[in-house]
Amino acid sequence: MIDPRPRAVAAAGTLLWRRRRGRLEVALVHRPRYDDWSWPKGKLDPGEMWAVAAGRETEEETGLVARLGIPLPRALYVTPRDELKEVRYWAATPTGGHGELLNEIDRVEWLAPDPARLRLSYARDVLQLRALLEAERAGHLDTWPLLVVRHAQSMPRSQWSGEDGLRPLDPDGLARAHALVPLLQTYGLDRLVSSPSVRCVDTVSPFAESAQVRVRTKKGLSEEGYEARPEKAVRHTDSALQRGAAALCTHRPLLPDVLGHLAERAVAGSAARRTLSALATAGIDKGEVLVCQVSGAGDEAVVVTVERHRP
């Protein structure tokens, strides 16, 4: 049977924002081919994850490396070629880059919100700007990412005769570990904290090597450590909330405590709290990355949004 539903062209982009002299500004790009002003965005490459495409396209169109923040409303529309197109957006902050324009863009301008709204060529792009400003008013725009990673697929216990902590990833797990590199890069991680089990360390090692970030191992994030001292799972989660841009790589048995604690730190009544509470019971997939955007730090840390990046 032929599926009559049209397949949407997949694209992703960002609303880059910054503060100058205490005032919020957002970046718009100009495409001379269409003589229009919009947000930096572009189509996904085959097999590419949405968030990865958002970061890549932003760098290609603005010359700026972006760290993704909170997700923003998507756009769904029909193009002049009569194609259905879905664009997913994130708020993002520039963290580096050369600023050279390399891809169909001849101008990038930073504008205050009101001039930006007037400059936009398409009414649909106002939706993302409105959501960004609502987050700003709520104090939820300036966030940092805390990622919870469940280790990728490993060799079955039944096929491994050595110590469980030495059980390695299988070929699918190794492939997933390498596929995670561009995703973790997109969130600009400064710290990696992992169970010392080989299957956890090897899940994040390809990114660690690429970004030259040290993997810090904590026995309290291992299955054996959790069995002996279950309270350490929450303690390590709290420690991660003291600073910024971190990933915790651990095992399924710890997830109820880790995700349940993060649910308690989420905005009351929010989708983030509901998602974390549900996943604390249901768990996440092997090789999945759960991205929590956090406002503040330490005792003031609040989880604002949650996204799932599944294999």
Automatic annotation (TrEMBL):
MF (Gene Ontology): hydrolase activity
Keywords: Hydrolase
Name of the featured protein: Hydrolase MutT/NUDIX
Domain Nudix hydrolase residues, every copy: 7-133
Lineage: superkingdom: Bacteria
